[in-house]
Amino acid sequence: MADSTAALAKLLEVMARLRDPANGCPWDREQTFATIAPYTIEEAYEVADAIERNDAVDLRDELGDLLFQVVFHARMAQERGWFDFNEVAASIHDKLVRRHPHVFGDAVFDNSAEQTSNWEEHKARERTAAAARRGETSTSVLGDVPQALPALMRAAKLGKRAARTGFDWPDASGVRDKLNEELAELDAEIAKGATDAATSEPDPRVAEELGDALFTLVNLGRHLHVDAEVALRAANRKFESRFRHMESLARARGLALDALSPAEWDALWLESK
Q1: DSSP per-residue codes, 64-84
Q2: What are the b/e assignments for 26-55, b being 16+ CB within 10 Å?
Q3: Helices (H), 19-150
Q4: Which of 82, 148, 149, 211 has CB 3.0 to 4.6 Å from 77, enough for a Cys bridge?
Q5: How far is CA 161 from CA 104, 138, 144, in A?
Q6: Any idea what the Cα angle at residue 220 is, between residues 218 and 225, rounded to 5°?
Q7: CATH topology for 151-226?
Q8: Model-level pTM?
């Protein structure tokens, strides 16, 4: 514990030096919450990437980068007199203790379902309290699903949150039927647009129906216990691997990629599989 405390103290000191108005780093001094936020998101994805690659060294380094983002935001908040890093740590400490009464209190749950239900009740009370602090007179079960989440991830969270109120398909087959319906509506809008003049602008009706189909597909994944965001990342990796293999095959045979016919592309794709 002493070593970790000392290491954190050194990191906080480095952050203070970087933000020092007189002798700090010009770039670090100029940053704001808004300019740093994209880096915070990027670092979180790099942590996920290191985990997917099972690279322990990269994971250590990327966790450090993500921790630095927390320290950076906390330092800027401290400069404004809002809160400091210790208060950030205390906040998550108290939240974890509060949400785990079976570990830190006398509560007893017979199974994980009861524990999950209790967890959600705690979160609901916290949402209500947060809304009251902001002066909101009513709360929505969807109110704290972050707008900045990747669209697939947010769609899954919206569907899951709505499902807790009973607004959901009874099983995966119902979602699959809905997907067929949405795809049929997409096809209909595509067919309508087929007679329109060629344009580089997307047809808003096609875009809307495509969005509906994607949203339904995400919820089908939820019913099948498949995380759509994770599944799509895996599909991206598979496509990238196969395409790189096709590139290697083409180079080895002296073929120019931009000169390949559809049939030649298909042959390379099948070979890469």
Answers
A1: HHHHHHHHHHHHHHHHTTS--
A2: eebeebeeeeeeeebeebeebbeebeeeee
A3: 26-30, 33-52, 56-79, 85-99, 101-104, 112-133
A4: 82
A5: 27, 17, 10
A6: 95
A7: Helix Hairpins (1.10.287)
A8: 0.70
pLDDT at residue 85 above 70?
yes
Q: Is the dihedral of CA 7, 11, 14, 16 positive or negative?
A: negative
Residue 197 pLDDT exceeds 90: no
Do the beta carbons of residue 67 and residue 92 sit within 8 Å? no
Tell me how far apart the alpha carbons of residues 2 and 205 are, in angstroms, rounded to a whole number.
60
Distances (CA, A) of 252 to 7, 260, 266: 51, 14, 17
Helix axes 85-99, 112-133, angle to 10 degrees: 140
206, two tokens: 């096609």
Question: The tokens 């089908």 sit on which residue?
Answer: 220
Nearest-10 crossing angle of helices 33-52, 56-79:
160
Domain 2-99 = CATH 3.30.365.10: no
Residue whose pair of structure tokens reads 């096809």 in the numeric block: 187
Find tokens 């514990």 and name the residue: 1
Let me know if the fold of 2-99 is the same as that of 151-226: yes
Mean pLDDT of the chain: 91
DSSP H or E segment with residue 16: helix 2-18
Largest CA distance in the chain: 72
Q: Where are the domains of the chain?
A: 2-99, 151-226, 232-272
- Give the C-alpha distances (Å, rounded to integers) separating 269 from 106, 238, 253, 260: 59, 12, 15, 12
Name the residue with tokens 């697939």.
152
* Amino acid letter, residue 185: E
Note the pLDDT of residue 13.
97
**pLDDT for 102 beyond 70:** yes
Distance CA 180, CA 14 (A): 56
Check if the beta carbon of residue 219 is closer than 8 Å to that of residue 156.
yes
How sure is the predictor about 200, in pLDDT bands with cuts at 50, 70 and 90?
A: low
